[in-house]
Amino acid sequence: MYGFRRNAQGQACLSATPLSQLLAQSGLETPAYFYDLDAIAEEARALIGGYGSVRHVVAYAVKANSAGSVVRTLAAEGTGADVVSAAELEVAVGTGIPAEKIVMSGVAKTDRELDLAIASRLLAIQAESVEELFRIATRARSLGRQARVALRLNPGIEIESHAHISTGHDKAKFGIARADVGRAFEAIDGSDGALLAVGLSTHVGSMLTEVAPYLTSAKHVCDVARARRDRSPPLEYLNFGGGFGIDYGSGRGVRPADFARAAVELLRAQDLADLMLLCEPGRSMVGAHGVLVARVVQSKVSADQQWVMIDAGMNDLIRPALYGAKHRVEPLECEPSAPAWRVVGPVCESSDDFGEHPLGSRVPEAVVIRDAGAYSFTMASEYNGRALTAEVFLKQGVITNISPSPGAAAWVERRLRA
Ligand code: LLP
Description:
Blueprint lengths: L3 E3 L5 E3 L2 E2 H8 L5 E5 H13 L6 E6 L6 H9 L3 E4 L2 H9 L7 E3 L6 H9 L4 E4 L2 H14 L3 E8 L21 E2 L3 H9 L5 E7 L10 H16 L9 E3 L16 H14 L6 E4 L3 H4 L3 E13 L2 E6 L8 H5 L5 E3 L8 E5 L8 E6 L7 E4 L20 E6 L2 E6 L4 H10 L1
Parallel strand pairs: 4-20, 5-6, 5-13, 6-7, 7-8, 8-9, 9-10, 9-11, 11-12, 12-13, 15-17
Antiparallel strand pairs: 1-2, 2-3, 4-14, 14-15, 14-19, 16-19, 17-18, 20-21
The chain binds ligand LLP.
Ligand LLP binds next to helix 10 and helix 11.
């Protein structure tokens, strides 16, 4: 049994170890992130299991959590990677993921990034526009190489999600619109061999809680693949994207493996089972398996409000401020109980607010912010002169690695030099 849970005494644990004990062992100041690598490995195995015997690559979206310990754990389970920058590509390669399991996405890849991707012979550069295809062809010619490309298709559908994380609709900057697919293939076919079309991809957004929108966009990918059926050389893969939702506390109906099984069924029903299947999950691989531990600095009680001020803020975990996301904030050493307190961070912004949480009648000394494994540390900033936090990695409930905070002194020095 891995991941977050409470022991018989009600203490918050990651794997079997109380987080208060891990914090003491680490010798770290709060706030600090803790991740359970076994739970992450288990998550990967469950998703991979959903593909059964179908040839596939689970291309982990490194943007969700780019820590070497995390990516290495996934690489050891056989995953590939979806990267969106040269730096993420270097992390993926550095953790041992083979180039033929890596795809690069992104609407504004620089020439340097394209050159690196071409020279690395990735599975594919996933092009997001016709204009980008022309640029990739130019870079490939100047390197004297052929570039393996996929078209990221924008199916033009709305999903039920936060506007900031919905990407497959007509107004989004992402992907190639239906009307432009013909021109995109013309750019490839007319490139005199500079470009090789190897795949089709899509990604309609994040936090999907149902399989239906995933299948709607996947069907569009299948339609385009069938229309391209007789071309030689044939396509190698179809990528239906990531976006599998996790349970932030309000329940979850579908598991990531349900998306995989549905994708396999669709591929067979569409008579495209000779192609390899890709997916690009980020959040679902890591989100539930990391927590942020913070100390309570003080409380404040006024006429009709009661606040708890903690030492973690929106610079450490921006999802509540940016998307109105709710992460459960709970006492570290006992189960949550009424009354609720408004939990806020130290940053000088009204949006530095984690919402109302049942912290109990005695304000706890420390809290745990749950489901902070994805898009949490990777979106952190140093706003207000607050250093990036430390990260702690566990295996079998034991600390195996600590990535220390650069510390506030380093921030001061850099700012003075600026
Ligand atoms: N593929 C592409 C092309 C993407 O843009 C993304 C996420 C993924 C895969 C992985 O999606 P996932 O499985 O993690 O949902 N910061 C936001 C989420 C932004 C997602 C950006 N793209 C959040 O904290 O909710």
